[in-house]
Design brief:
single chain; 245 residues; alpha/beta; 7-stranded mixed beta sheet
Length: 245
């Protein structure tokens, strides 16, 4: 399953997945926040709040937010947990530019900082963070297990990994409606709002292929994590994973 999602790319060209993902998010950055709210009917905000509650005790001091995008989770962490520092990294400078503007407007720029970086080559020394978070980004990794190994490296002993990822519901009543929505309505809306006609077709393809549930938990264990918990939300449309170094 992991190899399958890692071979699904936003575009049909010869570039590495990392380069294609960077280009895709640069293209859709101006419309990204609007599409997130529209696609999830605003439920993504509830998912993030539930995830933050799961790491509220003990309060982390230094947090790394991987695949931070426009910084929604990073800023929620700053407001709810009052950490000393939050560092948001992302491949896309276009997304980071939006995040920096939002953090400045919210008065959080002294706590939340952003920098361009690759999750497979984190520019931090080992044992640098109390908590690492990833919201809706793991399925875009070129090497999921390699990304987890890097996050394990930069976590302090006892530090926690929090992952929020979209997943596929299995219920007989929910799944047909979900498939219709993700495979037809979302790509259509994406073409109307975004200039990138391919990005919102890639979304349901990557969700369908990403490791889910116990398969995702096993990848975390292989990277060294323990005490992995799996929490499905909203009929299985989203899953929160929590693990410990």
């Amino acid at each position: 399953m992991s190899e399958e999602v890692e071979s699904i790319n936003p575009y049909d060209d010869s570039r590495r997945k990392t380069e294609q993902v960077r280009a895709m998010f640069d293209n859709i950055a101006p419309a990204y926040d609007f599409m997130n709210r529209a696609m999830t009917l605003g439920i993504d905000k509830i998912w993030r709040r539930k995830a933050v509650e799961m790491i509220a005790t003990p309060r982390p001091r230094d947090i790394l937010d991987v695949a931070t995008g426009t910084g929604d989770l990073a800023m929620l962490l700053a407001r709810r947990l009052d950490p000393l520092t939050i560092t948001g990294i992302d491949l896309s400078e276009g997304m980071l530019a939006v995040g920096r503007r939002k953090a400045a407007e919210a008065g959080l720029a002294d706590v939340v900082s952003f920098q361009q970086a690759d999750c497979l080559h984190l520019p931090f020394t080992g044992n640098s963070f109390d908590c690492v978070t990833v919201a809706y980004g793991v399925r875009n990794f070129e090497d999921i297990e390699g990304g987890y190994c890097e996050m394990f490296r930069v976590l302090r002993p006892g530090g926690r990994l929090l992952v929020i990822e979209l997943s596929t519901p299995s219920g007989r009543l929910v799944k047909p409606l979900y498939d219709l929505y993700t495979r037809h309505i979302i790509p259509l809306a994406g073409r109307m709002v975004s200039k990138d006609t391919r990005a919102y077709a890639y979304l349901p393809e990557s969700i369908a292929a990403v490791p889910q549930g116990e398969q995702m938990a096993e990848l975390m264990r292989r990277a060294g994590f323990t005490s992995v918990t799996v929490r499905p939300l909203t009929f299985g449309v989203c899953t929160i994973y929590l693990a410990v170094k």
